[in-house]
Specification:
Length: 211
């Protein structure tokens, strides 16, 4: 009789628990459901008498909770994967920007000529040195041209002077030669006049010779 009374009380408790469980199962968490199951179940000595349908409900809620956690975990993993992909894309973009920036910095400090790259500072220094060398060479050439022009002028002046002196020498030589020729002719005339006899010997006639 006592056993029947206990069974009746257990059935009554589980029935009340089932009704309340059907009302609250949609909003209760697993911990709340476990606490409700524990408080709503009947105690027999050191044991709790729990209806099988209640255990099935708790198990279902547990499975639903685990499935929700798995779904949330999968969503989080997908989100993490998406974030990692976005981070990788961002890193690639940053690397491209950094490479492009380095290229721009390199181009801003270098200049390419005939496929050879030179630093702009080195190139400007080289151009300045070349221009300075060309200016010095041009100055040297101009100085040499002036020197050659001066020497040519001096040579021309000397040639003109030599030509004038030669003409004067020729003129004087001709005048001296003419003078010497006149003096020589005069001397010849004088000598010729000295050799002519003062008295002339008349030839003897034929009669005088016979006598």
């Amino acid at each position: 009789m006592k056993y029947r009374l206990i069974v009746f009380m257990v059935l009554l408790g589980t029935s009340a628990f089932s009704q309340s469980d059907s009302v609250k199962s949609s909003t209760m968490t697993l911990q709340d459901r476990f606490a409700l199951m524990k408080t709503s179940s009947q105690t027999f000595q050191d044991y709790k008498v729990i209806k099988e349908i209640v255990l099935n409900g708790v198990w279902k809620i547990s499975q639903d909770s685990v499935n929700r956690l798995k779904g949330a975990l999968a969503t989080q993993r997908a989100s993490i994967s998406q974030l990692e992909k976005s981070l990788s894309d961002e890193r690639s973009l940053i690397e491209k920007v950094r490479t492009s920036q380095q290229g721009l910095e390199y181009d801003s400090t270098h200049i390419s000529i005939l496929g050879l790259s030179f630093g702009k500072t080195l190139f400007v220094s080289g151009v300045f040195i070349v221009l300075l060398g060309m200016l010095l060479l041009l100055g040297g050439l101009l100085a040499k041209v002036r020197l050659i022009s001066s020497e040519a002028k001096e040579t021309k002046d000397l040639l003109n002077f030599s030509t004038h002196e030669l003409e004067e020498y020729k003129k004087k030589s001709l005048e001296k030669q003419a003078k010497l020729s006149r003096e020589l002719q005069t001397e010849r005339n004088r000598i010729a006049s000295e050799r002519t006899p003062i008295f002339t010997i008349k030839p003897m006639s034929t009669t005088q010779t016979i006598l």
